[in-house]
Amino acid sequence: MKRRALISVSDKTGIVAFAGELVKLGFELISTGGTYKALDEADIPVKYVSEITGFPEVLDGRVKTLHPLIHGGILAMDSANHREQMEQNGISFIDLVVVNLYPFRETIAKPGVSFEEAIENIDVGGPTMVRAAAKNHGRVTVVVNPEDYGKVSNALREEGTVSAGLRRCLAAEAFAHTAEYDRLIAGYLECQLEPIASFPKTLRLTAQKVQDLRYGENPQQRAAFFVNSEAGGGTLASGKQIQGKELSYNNWVDMDAAWKIVREFETCAVTIIKHTNPCGVALGKTPLEAYEKAYAADPISAFGGIVAFNRVVDTNCAKALKERFYEVIIAPEFSPEAREILSEKVNLRLFVVGRGDAGKPSSGWAFRSIDGGYLVQEVDGGTTLVSEWDVVTDLKPTEEDLLALDFAWRVVKHVKSNAIVVTNHGQTLGIGAGQMNRVGSVKLALDQAGDNVKGAYMASDAFFPFPDSIEAAAKAGIRAIVQPGGSLKDAAVIEAANHHNLIMVFTHRRHFQH
Predict the structure, then answer these.
(1) Which of 4, 238, 293, 408 is the most exposed place for a label (fewest CB within 10 A)?
(2) Residue 32: what pLDDT?
(3) Is there a catalytic annotation at residue 499?
(4) Which of 47, 67, 135, 489 is catalytic?
(5) What is the per-residue pLDDT for 357?
(6) Cα first-last separation, the chain
């Protein structure tokens, strides 16, 4: 009995060659719409689905394959009972189903797409055929990905059949294909609801595995890297490694922290990261100037760190980077000369993210797993504008003071809480991160800043609960402080600042990062 294949694909990549191979292997082809036209124009023998069903396409093409002669041929098992029913009803086996679905993702991504157009690109017959074939993979081979055409044709050519193991793998891929399709549609429809719910009732996550990692945070933990297929370009995950050893789990975590910091700034910025906290952050007229200032902030901790730039790494910068040990360097791009210079350090990882949107706040959701569940929150995107700050002390800041405080405020957002940052004009001097009490973080930041603290600026990610931190800052020589405010002791904190002739501004926005 001649084997039959039903082919109906939206993505026609490689379909003509694959269909031609199937014909050579003795398959009779059935097809619909644009796929039929493509095969027919390529002089590949193919029957239109209406020739099989004896029923025309109706309802503007909404009904083509939804017919017992099609689905009976897909769902029938090779049993005496099923064969008898098939003979009674004129149904023939369909052995291979090659289907991928209407481009719903691409449709809703188009600017100005109408709701009606989106709805018309919801495939019904395609998912039905895919699910039927996948359910019956004990007999039927289902293919939804053009990348699998070669596997199937090789198996048919070499073995005369597709093995049970490969059919099961293809069936799993098919159900994943339809599940992702339904997830996209559900998400799109939920976004059309009025009012739009802040979070869906059901959280649907999807990501494609890019690679297995050597291990997780520790050698005993397995790990892998997945990419969110909806995130688009300009993100860290969509970047490209162009040199060096394979990235580790910890590399990715630190790279994420580094890239988020330099994205905060429209001007040229550099940060050096260790264990997700910045050792140094600095602005400069050139990448080299910004890098040297970031390095000078904490040269001891910078050893073995991750460096991120929001500008192209040029020749001069590459020469300086080459002299020190780093794990990863991230940038929108590296000049050809910089690549050549850094290529001598064969283990150094270079990572290109692309131009991105410097200074543009991050958006979307942030996820964290807990034992048996997930926490979901909005990304802490952007920061309060300087124009929205309140000066709460008698001494008022100059424009120069406000620029310095804005830099400090943008940096402290990315330091683990309790977080204190001491800076001058565009350079971190001391960072206190992750302490159990705020005054402890203040002490760490001031100690690290050393003699440079005289006339410097301080930022706190949350309010000061007591005046003790203000007393310590004043004693060290801090000029101005930026903090959210909101403590029950705000009056006492402001009084302490006034007593020591400090400038203090409230942002009314907290930046905890746990």
Answers:
(1) 238
(2) 85
(3) no
(4) 135
(5) 57
(6) 65
Catalytic status, residue 500:
no
- For residue 463 the two structure tokens come to 């309010």
- From residue 232, alpha-carbon distances to 228, 264, 474 in Å are 8, 19, 47
Q: Does residue 480 sit in helix, strand or coil?
A: strand
Q: What would the pLDDT profile of 325-339 be if each residue is shown by its tens digit?
A: 999 999 999 999 999
Q: Which helix (H) or strand (E) holds 187?
A: helix 164-191
pLDDT number for residue 83: 82
DSSP codes, 402-460: HHHHHHHHHHHTTSPSS-EEEESSSBEEEEE-S-SSHHHHHHHHHHHHGGGGTT-EEEE
Tens-digit pLDDT profile for residues 402-420: 999 999 999 999 999 999 9
Which of 275, 345, 489, 500 is catalytic? The answer is 275
**Confidence grade of residue 282 (pLDDT, cut at 50, 70, 90):** very high
Distances, alpha carbon 52 to alpha carbons 29, 45, 136, 425, in Å: 11, 14, 21, 76
Alpha-carbon span 433 to 276, nearest angstrom: 10
pTM: 0.79
d(CA 478, CA 457): 6
Q: Report the CATH number of the 233-352 domain.
A: 3.40.140.20
Instruction: Identify residue 290 by its one-letter amino acid code.
Output: A
The CATH classification of domain 4-191, taken from the options 3.30.2350.10, 3.40.50.300, 3.90.1150.10, 3.40.50.1380: 3.40.50.1380
Question: Helices 15-24 and 149-159 sit at what angle, rounded to 10 degrees?
Answer: 10
Using CA atoms, how far apart are residues 271 and 310, in angstroms rounded to an integer?
A: 9
Give the least confident one: 13-27, 287-301, 352-366, 481-495: 352-366
| 80 contact partners, CB below 8 Å, separation of at least 6 | none
Task: State how beta strands 47-48 and 96-100 pair.
Answer: unpaired
Work out the burial of residue 199: count CB atoms within 10 Å of its CB; fewer than 13 is exposed, 13-18 middle, 19 or more buried: exposed
Residue 82 or residue 505, greater confidence: 505
Angle at 355 between CA 350 and CA 359, to 5 degrees: 115
Q: What is the pLDDT of residue 71?
A: 79
